[in-house]
Amino acid sequence: MIVGTKLSKSFGKRKVLDEVSIHCAAGEICGLLGANGAGKTTLFKILFGLITPDSGSFSISSNGVKPIGGIIEKPALYEYLNAYDNIKVFGSIQGVPITKSYVEMLLHKVGLPTDRKDPVAHFSLGMKQRLGIAIALLNNPSCLVLDEPFSGLDPLGVSALRNLIVELAEKENLAIILSSHIIEELSRICHTLVVIKDGKIVNAGPSQQIIANNTDTYAICANNLLASDSIKKYNPVFKGQCVQVTIAADKVSELIQDLHAENIFVTSCTPEINMEKLFETNAL
Amino acid sequence: MKALIRAEIFKLFRQGKTYYALGALFMIEAVVMISAYFEGNNIIEILLDNLRKSFYFEGTLVNGSLLVYLLLNTLWFHLPLILMIVVSGTLTSEYKDRTLQTVMLQPVVKWKYILSKYIVAILFTLVVVFFLALSSFALSYGIFGKGDLIVYLNTLNFFESSEAIYRLRWSFASGALSMVFFSVSSLTIAVIFKEATKTWIIVAFFLVLSNILLKIDFGSNWYNHFFYAKMNDTWQYFFYNTIPWNLVLHNSLLLSIYTLVTMGLGLYIFHKKDIG
Question: Which of A8, B80, B143, B229 is the most core-located residue (most Cβ within 10 A)?
Answer without folding.
Answer: B80
